[in-house]
Amino acid sequence: MSATESKAQPQPQPNAVAGVSMRDLLASCAAANAVSTPPRVPDPQAVERPAEHRKAA
């Protein structure tokens, strides 16, 4: 084998992340999104008024 020949080694893919499955990656992104998103403000028209309590007889 000459010095210019390279051994057959697998070339890493440019966008590959070693050791992380796509399912785990997507799950971590969904979890980060859920944690970092503030809760929605309730719609004032959709909010029901609590029933008034009756006084005991």
Task: Note down, in words, how this protein is organized.
The protein is an all-alpha fold and 57 residues long. Helices cover 26% and strands 0% of the residues. It contains one helix and no strands. The radius of gyration is 29 Å and the shape is rod-shaped.
List keywords for this structure.
rod-shaped, 57 residues, mainly alpha, 1 helix
Order of helix and strand elements from N to C terminus: H
Provide mean pLDDT, rounded.
77
Largest sheet: none
Structural class: mainly alpha
Number of strand elements? 0
Describe the SSE topology.
Blueprint: H1 22-36
Task: Give me a quick take on this structure.
The protein has 57 residues and is an all-alpha fold. The chain contains one helix and no strands. The chain has one helix at residues 22-36.
